[in-house]
Specification:
heterodimer, A: 447 residues, OB fold (Dihydrolipoamide Acetyltransferase, E2P), Glucose Oxidase, domain 1, twelve-stranded mixed beta sheet, 7 helices, 10% helix, elongated, B: alpha/beta, Nucleotidyltransferase, domain 5, Rossmann fold, eight-stranded mixed beta sheet, five-stranded mixed beta sheet
Amino acid sequence: MKARRETIRRVLPEMGRVLVEKDQPVFPDTIIAETKLQPIEPVVIPVTEQLGLAPDTMGKMALVQVGDLVKAGQVIAGVNIGGVNYEVHAPADGKIEDISSLIGTIALRLEGDPNEPEKQVNVGKELELPDIMARRFLQVREGMQVKMGEVLAMDDEEVRINAPITGEITKIEGSTVYIKRPFVLRQISAYVPGFVVEIVEDRGAIIETEVCRINGIFGMGGETWGDLRVAVTDCQGVVNAQDIRKDDQGKILLAGSFVSLEALQKAKEVGVKGIISGGINNKDLVHLAKEEIKPGVIAEDIGLTVIITEGMGPIAMNPDVFNLIAKKEGQVISINGLTQIRAGVIRPEILLPAGELEAVSHQEESPGTLRRRLSLGDSVRIVREPWFGLLGQISEIPKDEQILPSGVRTLVYKIKTEDGELIVPRANVELYERERTGSLSDDSAQS
Amino acid sequence: MRKRILIADIGSTTTKALLFELGQESVRLLGGADAPTTVEAPYNDVKIGLLQAVSRLEEQLDLPLTEEKHSIIRASEHLDGLLATSSAGGGLQMLVVGLVKTMTAESAQKAALGAGAVLLDVMAQDDGLEMYERVTRIKELRPDMILMAGGIEGGAVLEVALLADLLVKADPKNRLSDAKIPLIYAGNSDVRPYFESRNHPFDVRFVDNLRPLMEKEDLNPARLAIQEVFLNHVMTQAPGYKEVQDRVSAPILPTPLAVGKALELLAKEEQVNVMAMDIGGATTDVFSVYEGEFYRTVSANLGMSYSSMHVLAETGINNILRWLPAHLKEDEVRNWIHNKMLRPTTLPVSADALKVEQALAREALRLALEQHFSLTVALRGHKREGDAFKSNVTFFGEEVLFGMKDIDHLIGSGGAISHAPTPLQAAIMMIDSFLPSGYTRLSLDRSFMLPHVGVLSQSDEESALRVLRNICLKPLGSVIAPVSGYANQNEKIGRLQLQGNKGTEKAMDLRFGHLYVLPLKDGEDAQVNISGHWKLNYGKGHFKGFSGQVKGGDIGLIIDLRGRPLRLAKNIDDQREQTENWLVKVEMGGQDHES
């Protein structure tokens, strides 16, 4: 399999600051962009209602546009009625997200500095009561989330003290309520080594890299990278707990046919970043995830990234794939366990750095999924129990359907293997070509 | 006069063309051929797949059906007409919006499903999403059509307008072309001016409110509008459909709607309530016609391959293991189910692997039926009028319109059922998952021909009925089970007498906890009497027993005395032994105590 030059888009899901420049070399852990502004839900300001006007006057009144950054107190809408100016002000810093003339509102997404101090609201002082009295009227507790404008306290005369910002109540001292806005630092790293070829304004960059891409069949856990260590002697090798070493911290391990639950647990403890294996037990993954596995778009977090190349259960890795990966021992490789089964299939990926001696092709490789009809003598792999992973040659192609031990009637191949000649449904066989590997993501090669 | 009619179902993956010869008194299936559906790139033209299937049919029958080098299908001396159903490109994909999840949104969901739609999402004010999340979600979806409801007549206006506003903002794009997305508005009519008075990216049409009152649902206007829009707008934009549409002699129907038409036909003709299941790799559909009304649910995450892990997650490993012999270990079963998802097209080689698939099918079907009943409940938020005795079926505390005891004819289709190696396996899977009670006929639609029957019924009801009876449905036989009541295991609960009109005779004692299979051939009817027992009710009350005419089939008559719901042992190991005993005895030719 040839390495090839790929461009990879690395961008934040929302606006942020780009930290790299064009042509800059990057490493997997180079931060490409970050945002310190964790956007929370927008504050909806009922503009026309505040002014007692019909909602469809909104269009004429708005003094800002969607996307504008505004400061607290800034006039965002206004109208002149009979020579008198009526104005609506932004309650906080933020970005205008929406202006609706159907219901007469402006939605403001709050932004601010993650290092800003907590907002303090002295309820006793506001209600002109001693702390001990004022505490009786508090309607919030520590740890609660409040939205801007929600009631923090209300006394017997229904005087309300409202939350000035949206956030979490971090503590209550005396009758003073501390509210912290939930900011999170979100970063995106390069994930692969390469060069920045293009900056995506406010979002990130496009990286060009030279890699061998191998797709697994199932994975869990997100993007990660680390030095590769081959933890077994060949593609049949099983990784047990004693095969995980202390100095495996931060590494990605290559197993052969299987990784035991104990090994997975120890790997997690030691701080192994990822494991690649031919097979694994579904039950062990469920044990780590603490729930049944329902692959969706979101990579489930089990403490490390796991990539399976063949299927569930102990199954030897395709030997060519094993050797290809094993050659990169000691080098940094990047992996992503993200798997989606339906609707635009996403398979987990293994990105190997291109070696100096390997040719780098600029062209798209012809897809490894060429589904030619299998013929007599073709090398194939069986991809379902009871002979999962077994290699062989097609020795006969019977014309008529045959009845399997299960009673299922279907077209079959006769396949010569080290276990003797087997009768295998055509649907359970895939082409195995020594020259072209790495097309593991295909479903069975059907004729 | 004999007519030759070509009927094609342009499915999401396969286009299946069947050629029928329709006479005054008889129908014949002359042949059938498949080809991959070609709605997507590189073909972008459904006509190509259709023509390919038809030319295979020509080859098979040595009969010219196309003209000009296989490029045109048109009426000729060999062909009198073309009909089609379609779920190509993933079918009719709809977004449904309502105000309250359990009220208008649910009614709208029923209307869309009943019209044969695939639901991309159902949104409501109380669906727990933030406004921006909804906008992002709608932007991602590329619906063929939107059905919007909300508010009873004279009810909420502002909230509904807000939802409309949300749709306008999200500005979803058409999946197949640049045309405006059709939006059917079936909510509070007071909100119509909002659409009329402003710019929006939709092709809006108004229909009567589908929930005019809290206690009234009126889904038909919305359903009809969906069909009309599907035919005249959505289909015409799908690549290649325009030409197919010009050739057909009756409107193209969405495949699930055509299934509904076929079932309605059967229900009307036999004066019965019908239910059908279609289990696929990714989804499972349940259809029913109860008192002439068509209901349909799609369980998007219940299926045999792509969705196998969802079935496992929903039902739990023990519910799958209970159908499997004890020598199959949990680890192995889990891995097999997971691998079926990873390599969906592979087939079970060993008998054990098949058992795992059939256990999975039972659970997928059982859950799909639960979902069906959770949607065929009486309108929430009000008490149903009518007789108190009829509304005694409850489903998780909700009032259900009907139960399995009300179903007279149960039809199975979809790979796991229709390709089961033996008809007995298919029948037992259907019974274990749907638990029919009282007297129920069982049939298989082996090659999923119900859509063809449905579209034919539009123009020729009599022929459609003949196709349905003589070609499409393969009778498995009948099942009799008590509607309620349990006796002790092995307790003698009565005596059965069977007198067939073609000579089959049988008399035997029946014991509780067993499953009996009595051969009775297709075409043979029999009078069956089961003596009454105070513990069991076959539908007419305790003590009454069962008495009636039953129909035969490939299996014959199944007497299921395992209780409803099935009375299973307490712990999983005993359950596994128990279910294995049922199956082993049945497979050995049924039980026959003290005949």
